[in-house]
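Model it.
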Amino acid sequence: MLFVFLLAACNSSEAAPGPGASTGNAGDVADDSTEDTDDSSESTALLEETAFDPHWGMMGVFTDAASCTTCHRANETAGVMTYDGTDVSPGAGWENSMMALAFADPYFQAAVAEETAQFPHLAGFIEDTCLTCHAPMGRTHAQQTGEDLDADGYYRFETALGHMHAREGVSCTACHQIQDDGSLGEPLSFSGNYRILSQAEWTDMGLDRPEIYGPYEAPAANAMSQATQYDPVHGPHMKDSGQCATCHTLFTPTLDLAGVPTGKAFPEQTPYQEWENSVYAPGRAKQASCQDCHMPAPAGYGTQIAVKQDGSPNANWPTRSPFHTHGFVGGNTHTLEVLLAFRSLLGIEGNTSVEGLEAQIEATRAQLENRSAEIAIETVTENAGQLEIPVRVTNKTGHKLPTSYPSRRAWIHLQVTDANGATVFESGRADERGRISTDARALQHACVAGDKVAGFDYSTCYEPHRDVITHPDQVAIYESVLGDVEGEITYVLLHASEYLKDNRLPPEGFARSAVPGTNEGLPADHASAIIGVPDSDTDFNAETAGGGSGQDVVHYRVDTGAFTAPFTIEAALRYQSVRPGFVAGLHHDEEPRVARYKQMVDLIPPTVETLASDDTLLVAN
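Modeled.
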């Protein structure tokens, strides 16, 4: 049986330079590291999309965001939805976010095209289920009405391209119409199984118009009821993380190497389950919801949440607090940079702005740098010309670091220099393409090829978990690695059957003993296992009275040889939302959106961000 799934690729500039970056050391990526990898597409004109029209009006129970912003907009003079001189109205935050651009995202489009080309017999199923969360209004309207579906009942990508309500992505009247039917946060609602009622269902309930939900009690309903097709109703579930889990918990069906369904569901992303097993879950010490972190409310701030249609305030409307902003800030600077660079080509000039996307990138980078992680060089010791350097990494998020789509990785970049500035040791430096030393192996032809190579050792295609590092080519990488039914690495999502490695850093409070070491046949609430970390590494998410520590300590052993003290030690935690193997793993260049994305990445390599850094000076030799 095929399980409902979607491709959640919520996914620039030069890579961030390493601390004291230098050239010519043993940790460099070889210039010919990808000579056998077919990871570039022929240079041709990039596919251009038609322009998106944000003023598409109404379609069934859905309405364009432009209509919502007629009243839900800021009035700076009156101080409505203006904080510290900034427009914090819902539309201003949302319009340049990855939620608004979920359909326009060129990586998402490339991933869908790649999977449908790989499995043409399932193309309709793949597109329909991907669009469930990347074009929820288009797909939901089609399924509710039976219109614009193919002969098999699927809503197709080419159809969605012609529908402005599909191309608006995850919009106001999609999220705010999700029903609290008792399934939120439960397996029944995962993988895009949110529930939005059709007009016929509202009529059957004796109501002539849809209800739309907000987080505040006693909404001032008359103005909205008169100006729109909705009656506003208090919906406490709008503040519930289970609302987010409808699309951000995803199980995909596993196909064997012949493209036949195995009947197994693969946990492609499980940030909700990771959060449930953390200190941030309800009733635990640092309780915080998805909305608290990704839609933060300015402390102590209250505001009216609407103005009249002419933009003027209404003194009779209540002030609301807390007021959650709608930037939906995550960690994907690279895709935002691609969207910014190719606004015209992607047809999004009419619904985004240069300033807005730049601000979104800045906010995303600030979140990564200030609220994601810490790194600390602990007490360094020296014995017989060898430095023992313990480096502690702490996850400050409420889920694994990194989380969600498995293209993401974080790693430690450590550099030791001597009194003359010479490099003694360096591990994890990224080059200008965002590649590190381990990518020389990861990008071997056999590692990223669609067809398996007989006799090849696929365990060489990824870096194992590292507790002790003694050589520059060894790197502490926190990542998930997909494995197919044969237990070999794959970049084809629907071939994914297990994780060969998942040493992403768990959140604080994540009980290592609470999840099994394999994903075989697991129910939805046990799909976030730690995989590939040996029991001997006791400081990886070490058990505490409150659960796991959410930390890891990596031990570097560096021979100083003839180098001269004092030694400067610099450590940084780097992050990348699209690692090179996932781009090299796209093979169907005959698909215009695959070829386009690969050319975009050639022009704007995957950004390397710095989550945290630390340094110390060791005087003794």
